[in-house]
Amino acid sequence: MRNVFKRNVLAGASLLMILFAAAQPGYPVSGTRPMLQQAEYFFDEDPGLGSGRSISLPALTDVASLTVPVDLTGLRDGVHRLYVRTKDDAGHWSLTSTFVFSNISVKDYPVAATAAPIREMEYFLDNDPGFGNGIPVALPATTDLQAHPVVINLAEAAPGIHQLYVRTRDEAGQWSLTGIFYFDNTQMTSYPSAGPLQPLSDIEYYIDNDPGYGNGRLVSFTSGTDVANISFQVPLAAISQGPHVIHLRSRSNPWSLNAWMPFNYGTPLPLTWLYVRGEMKTEGAKIDWATASESQTDSFFIEHSTDGRAFRAVGKLPAAGNSQQTSYYQFTHTQPDPGMNYYRIRQTDDDNRFTYSNVISLMNLSGLKAASIAPNPVKHTLYVAIPQGKRAAHLALYNAAGFLLLRKQESAGNSLVRIPVDQFGAGVYVLKIFYDGGGLESLKFVKE
Q1: pLDDT, tens digit, for every residue of 223-251?
Q2: Which of 13, 32, 42, 146 is the most buried (most CB within 10 A)?
Q3: Average pLDDT of 282-294?
Q4: What is d(CA 398, CA 402) in angstroms, rounded to the nearest whole number?
Q5: Per-residue pLDDT for 163 more than 80?
């Protein structure tokens, strides 16, 4: 226990240090200044001259700089008055000086004990069954849970919002405080296993308005054809001039999602793009594209970006000029950055007009030292690249308030993980990657 003397919010110790002046019996006649012979102090009530608590004085004291301690031991908490006075060698007492102060007893903080090793952990959902009656959690060989987080299986929880409670007990038998976490189990339903691939039975397209599944214009193709390279003619005589959208879909039971592409009919275009695609190879990023026709085309500039926004040219190829046949092109970017890389083609005409292709993205895992996510900001699908030599055990997605929104178990060895984020609102999110054998990475991204 220690006492604190406060005067105008000033803290001290169990002894109050005071500074006082010489005896003050009124203005004396000018002459030799008398020396102090006695000093005393008291609290609240005057016990009478000479009956206060004595203050030890040195010989020939210069009171202009004298500091003495005042013992506050035994004084009750609260506001008090301190009185101080002196007597000179002529037997004259000074006027009594008064100080108002607040005495507060402040307990010292206890010395922190050495943390006892954790010997038991348990968790439960929503309702507390009592200490020791929760579901036990298998602890790792080391009890450093920061470096080796444990995994709690919540797959059997009913869909909906739940409270997860976790607590531990040390070897001394003392239980910790119970940690509380909220999570939404509706996002944790596992995707069904994909069935065997079925051969395509139909491919159809339509322009602008959907006539319904199976009512589009059929595309003739041979069974077993690599549809990634299929090409066909689309008659445009029956449509009006202006902007349109062509939709394409296939069926292997059920129908696929629609692929679509806008086009402008009636306005001469310098070229017609067939595709732009790429693949990450050992030698670099291989980009290839094709055009169905070209008119007065001059060059193709291959442009590269690491964020999908700021592009720079990394290569140039001559264009066909004028052609009504399919033309094929290929370029290899030998120095792609670790992580996500974005590419587009800028086509330039003879008169310096230009158009852009669509943007493609390629993930480069070579040289990746830490996990990488892209795109950022993201609209639909977040791609997570795992560095070579590491294995992700699971990934967890949290909102800005720290609530768990999604937990994704990973098969060991996956180097690229896809996480759909369409169902989440716009804002800032944190993705945590838990690695096999310990280790954790946290990555922040923005959902548009």
Answers
A1: 766 666 778 888 888 888 778 889 988 88
A2: 42
A3: 91
A4: 5
A5: yes
Catalogue the E-assigned strands of 49-200: 53-55, 67-71, 78-88, 97-106, 118-125, 135-136, 161-170, 179-184
CA distance 286 to 327: 17
72 vs 56: CA distance, rounded Å: 16
Q: Which residues pair with 380 in a beta bridge?
A: none
Six token digits for residue 385: 């690249």
The token duo for 220 is 């003739």
State pLDDT tens for residues 142-152.
Answer: 655 665 667 77
Q: How many Cβ atoms are within 10 Å of 312's Cβ, its own excluded?
A: 9
Whether the link from the prior residue into 254 is cis, omega within 30° of 0, is yes
Query: Residue ranges per domain, the chain?
Result: 2-106, 118-187, 202-265, 271-364, 372-447
The answer to whether 400 touches 442, Cβ cutoff 8 Å, is no
Q: pTM for the complete prediction?
A: 0.40
CATH number of the domain located at residue range(s) 271-364 in this protein: 2.60.40.10
3-class DSSP assignment, residue 187: helix
372-447: CATH topology is Immunoglobulin-like (2.60.40)
Res. 436 pLDDT band, cuts 50 70 90: confident
